[in-house]
């Protein structure tokens, strides 16, 4: 498994474990589209995102990578959305290395939008960029 995939899987696992304690717990997915029905606890979707920077380090050859994952959060109310965003920030700040998978994980400021879901009058959505910084040996694909 590549370092990038390990980092993304660690982010997904960290958020899933941290948010499972909420009552009701949100549904946490990876690389899925937002379903038509919104679960009672809300929805969190971790998307792979893209690499935003590759910096070579010479002798021995390695690459410092900054990869930006996207965490989409959808909730039935603004208060629930805000609570989920706080819990996500707390989960990442509690272990910036995501169990040793990255050198540093940093959530960014969310962007907000309205979301249309079946069975919910007016859902709110936010997209949070999470920058994952790690180093790979030899190739950025490693």
From TrEMBL:
It comes from the Bacteria. This is Acyl-CoA transferase. It comes from Neoroseomonas alkaliterrae.
